[in-house]
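Supplementary notes for students who missed Thursday's class. We covered one full example, reproduced here. Read the sequence, then the structure, then the short commentary at the end.
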Amino acid sequence: MDYRQLGRTDIKVSAICLGSMTWGEQNSEDEGHRQLDFAFDKGVNFIDTAEMYPVPPRAETYGRTEEIIGSWLRARGNRDRVVIATKPAGPDERLVYVRDGKPRLDHDQMSRALDASLARLGTDYVDLYQLHWPERPANRFGRLGFEVEEGGDGTPLEETLAALRRLVASGKVRHVGISNETPWGTMRFLALAEAGKGPRIVSIQNPYSLLNRSFEVGLAEIATREQVGLLPYSPLAMGVLSGKYLGGATPEGARLSRWRHYKRYRTPAAQAATAAYVDIARQNGLDPAQMALAYVTSRPFVTATIIGATTMAQLETDIGAADLVLSDKIRADIEAVHRLYTYPAP
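Structure (token representation):
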């Protein structure tokens, strides 16, 4: 397993980060523990979660994922050997059960969110506390275009960063990061930190895959020059790049079979692009999922690729991608497909 520096910190994280958002919904506590054990034995020392997990979010399961990680940490006694990242939720009309239905990124709200996360995780600190998404209107979760919306931008970024500074000063947070953020937001956080307004962000967690390389426009340069590495989520585009949904297939128990309203990566263009990528993998004797993951992990602006699995077989395949090095010929073939389907899924 390759280990990489997290931002400008002294923390080294595995190139594969274990995502957890299915635990408590698609996976039981025992299954979550088995995934954690397997990943840890394979050298994965980085675990990503969030207060609102599992996804899709529901009041009945809110916080359950953190509880599963917490029970594993207590049972194994290895808190000092893993890097734990979690996130407070921002405003979302679905989260009517979170902090009076009005989660915000101010000090009071994030302090309450953090204390609750720490209790569920059974630890007195988290290594990385990431803003799950901007409070202001922004291009996140596939949104394109931009216009100012009524109601303003919510909590000013300066106030949010000052709140994070207080959480770091309390000893409950080691480092901070952002997620689902734009180039403008990323540079504003960096500028505010440089002006002494709060801690410097060390990472950004945004979607990135063969079907969505929008991070490369603007954010890749920032991530590289400013050492704010990407923690890409959905590197398999919700499993689509494995090829299992091609031809209209709906595998029993699969995520997009259970929740059909997730259509982001199932557009006609995305299906055509996926078929082309899967064909490259199979022509070269590779597992399509491993090829897609290996491509993401090899990018110079990536710190750790966040994988998620519902079965142990999927997990073994995904972690195995860490050892795969793609040839120049395969990379060239991938780029040729990308030129045809530059942005097939928003």
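Commentary. The chain is about 35% helix and 10% strand. The radius of gyration is 19 Å. If anything here is unclear, bring it to office hours.
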